[in-house]
Automatic annotation (TrEMBL):
InterPro entries: MFS_dom, MFS_trans_sf. Keywords: Membrane, Transmembrane, Transmembrane helix. The lineage of its organism: Bacteria, Bacillati, Actinomycetota, Actinomycetes, Pseudonocardiales. This is Major facilitator superfamily (MFS) profile domain-containing protein. It comes from Lentzea albidocapillata. The keyword Transmembrane applies.
Length: 144
């Protein structure tokens, strides 16, 4: 978690700065809002997809571990109510959830590697040292 936090913290503001540097000053707000919107959208989609993968993996592995034929229910006892389950089944549920969580972390790591490669492929640009207001001032001087 610390590695993810440090990595995200060190790159997040740099990407915002790169976007803000590549647009005219008049479009700075829209560019910043777009970065925030797509970051939120990506997080939402990521959580949804990984949640679906977790649920699917837990269901499939739990059915396999408990020898339940496909399409049949595992009973009226919820797998999340561990206190109501026998100790042997509790161990199976713990193992299945642990394996499914490891699987979604593996998927997240692959997505992270793709993100690192994409960041490395970004074209290096020099930050601008001026703002584009000078052009507008020149235009208004001509109009007088």
């Amino acid at each position: 978690m610390a590695v993810v936090g440090i990595g995200v913290g060190m790159t997040m503001q740099n990407l915002v700065l790169a976007v803000q540097n590549s647009v005219p000053l008049s479009e700075l707000g829209a560019a910043s809002a777009s970065v925030t919107f797509f970051r939120s959208l990506g997080g939402t989609i990521g959580v949804s997809v990984l949640g679906a993968v977790l649920a699917n993996r837990v269901t499939a592995d739990l059915s396999t571990a408990l020898h339940v034929p496909a399409g049949q229910s595992t009973g009226s006892t919820s797998a999340l109510n561990l206190a109501a389950l026998p100790p042997e089944v509790q161990t199976i549920v713990h193992t299945v959830y642990g394996d499914a969580t490891a699987h979604i972390f593996l998927i997240s790591a692959a997505v992270g590697v793709v993100g690192i490669i994409a960041a490395l492929l970004l074209k290096p640009i020099t930050l601008r040292t001026t703002i584009d207001l000078e052009k507008k001032e020149a235009d208004s001087a001509v109009a007088r």
